[in-house]
Amino acid sequence: MAIDAKNRKDLEVKIIRDSQIWNYLPSPENIIRGSMRGLRIYDDMKEDARVGSLFEDRRNATSNLPCYLTDVESGRVNDYASRHLTEAEIRKWAFILLDGALTYGFQPAEIIWERDRDGFYYIAGLDIHDINRYRFNTDGELFYDTLTPLNQPYKWIVHRNEGDSYNRQYGRAYLRRVYWPWKFKTLGWQFWLTATEKFSVPSLVVLFEQSDPKKAKETADNLADLILSISSGSGGAFANVNAIQQLSMGGSVADFNSLITACDLQISYGMTGQALATNVSETGTQALGTVQERTKNAAYENDARALRYTLQKLVDYSIAVNFGEDEPSPVFSFDTEDKASFDEVLRAYQAGIPISRKAMYAQYGLPEPEDEDDELEAPTSTSMATMGTAFNFSDDGNSKKKLPMILLSGR
């Protein structure tokens, strides 16, 4: 049975995608440790369009989750938290720690303290150093420049991806599993650029006969000069020339797209656990999209739970430094629960089910009014009837004047 062009292309992609070559390649960690760039290779990987977009999707989805800090019985602690443990500050810490831990597997940060005018110490920032300057000893203890141990709780904080200080101290780099597909893709780009540069301007070869070697060289030099003039757009006539041929490269460059597609597919599998992000037009369905969206959400929730423990340490440090280690700390948490849609909330409200006003404003990004004068209310049936008269509504419901889209409260 003949194989048409489309089936042949699908077969080529499948052969590359399902190849077992990935099982025979050395561990990326061994390659990275022996390179001059060290862990900075993961930063290079994020410059790739596919790797970078999927990485940012996971990092941003987790760091942008709704977060809360509970109140405690102490009014002084609550006042301190409202000034120095704000949502904006905690989100900055979350972004720094999560970005580094997903990239390298672990992210140490030096805690920078400052003092406010009331004498309270607060975390002014997290200082990030070159990741290659951190070292582990044989016992798994982490050092900065091999001299400074990171076992000082109020000076250093370390967040790990899928690891802790007792189990997998290095963490697990999120990009580790897609190193080889990225590397093959990078080499493919280099090949394509080289081939394009070489063959974008065709090379011309002149075939002629000459038995005398000395005269052959002289004739070749003369023909080379004429060929240069032709390649620059001029014309010319050649004597005693059998043929002029063009050197070109066809199939190898044409196959470049198959290689890039296969590598992108492996990257999508490795970073999301699914391939819909790559093959939406070919294999995407609503049911499959829902299942794979849940797969990604599970990863976001796992990141949020681990990040929550690290951020809680920073909250505990802040309270202990100012109020003592025995003072209860506010509890920080991410909200990772599935939320009802806005339409479902409205139906519940219309059915008489009590709804939290505070949660509504927070969850759906609604601007909360400052006071009664700032409120924007929906019109009642009475006000609509009044407006119908004012705007000269006819009995058939057609207005003779345009009804404003937004109706302000008439208080």
Structural category is alpha+beta
Classify the helix fraction into a percent range: 40-55%
Largest sheet: 3 strands, antiparallel
**Alpha-carbon Rg, integer:** 33 Å
Strand order of the largest sheet: 3-2-7
* Annotation, overall tally of beta strands: 10
Domain count: the total is 4
Q: Give the amount of beta strand, in percent.
A: 5-15%
Given as residue ranges, the uncertain stretches (5+ residues, pLDDT < 50) are 11-19, 280-284, 387-411
Q: What does the average pLDDT come to?
A: 76
Helix and strand sequence: HHHHEHHEEEEEEHEHEHHHHEHHH
Number of helices: 15
What general outline do the C-alpha atoms trace? elongated
Distance, first to last CA:
80 Å
Note down, in words, how this protein is organized.
The protein has helices at residues 5-17, 28-33, 41-45, 49-63, 75-84, 87-104, 179-199, 213-231, 251-254, 256-272, 280-283, 286-323, 342-350, 357-363, 381-390; strands at 67-69, 106-115, 121-127, 134-136, 142-144, 148-149, 156-160, 203-208, 241-247, 332-334. By secondary structure, the chain is an alpha+beta fold. The protein has four domains: 5-178 and 299-333, no CATH class; 203-247, no CATH class; 340-368, no CATH class; 375-411, no CATH class. The strands form four sheets. The protein has a three-stranded antiparallel beta sheet. A three-stranded antiparallel beta sheet has the order 4-5-6, with no helix packed on it. A two-stranded antiparallel ribbon has the order 1-10. Helix 4 packs antiparallel against helix 6, helix 4 runs parallel beside helix 10 and helix 4 packs across helix 12 (286-323). The protein is elongated.
